[in-house]
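Predict the holo structure. Ligand: flavin mononucleotide.
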Amino acid sequence: MDLNEAIATRRAVRDYKPDAIDDATIRALIDAAIQAPSAMNEQPWTFTVVRSRPLLDRISQEAKAHMLRTTPAGLLSHHLSDILADKSFQIFYHAPALIVISSRSEGPWAIIDCTLAAQNLMLAARERGLGSCWIGFAQSWLGTPAGREALKLPPSCVPVAPIIVGYPVAFPATVARKPAEINWIAA
Ligand SMILES: Cc1cc2nc3c(=O)[nH]c(=O)nc-3n(C[C@H](O)[C@H](O)[C@H](O)COP(=O)(O)O)c2cc1C
């Protein structure tokens, strides 16, 4: 698959087969992630791979409860609070693996660097026939002391990109994009 096809067909996948992903495949995705550019070549990322189903279930429960507790009332729509209160909703869609990209540095570009690594990882997953989805719902709780402890991350690390990976039941159709807003500045 060439790069354009991977870019055009990568989708947020929310329905996974139960099949496990082996270490070599996870390493290949992380190898792609670390090819991302980073400010001053600092490479501030660290990767945590979670494949324990009980831990994924626990993180899902904790993250939903944390969001319900901490999201300001004005930002919590009925729809969102219903989803978060639904005990049967697992925020990782029962994907077999979660890769959390965290920043080891507090530098001004570290979050951006980790985000670039995340996009590489998701495109590399697509190229290998794997689905992925960034799970923002997990982020807030993972950044708490209890969340960092669950990931065995030192307090200095900031979880940036929780990304699920797995073999998709199917790749969803393209989600429509708004036309690009382009301002051409004449010479
Ligand atoms: C920062 C970020 C956070 C996201 N958080 C979630 C999430 O918590 N749950 C989810 O199902 N999808 C999440 N997504 C996926 C987006 O909903 C998805 O990328 C968007 O709808 C566009 O669809 P596409 O990725 O298939 O093109 C997130 C994406 C990004 C970039």
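The chain has one domain: 3-166. The helical segments are 3-9, 23-33, 53-70, 78-85, 110-127, 139-142, 145-150.
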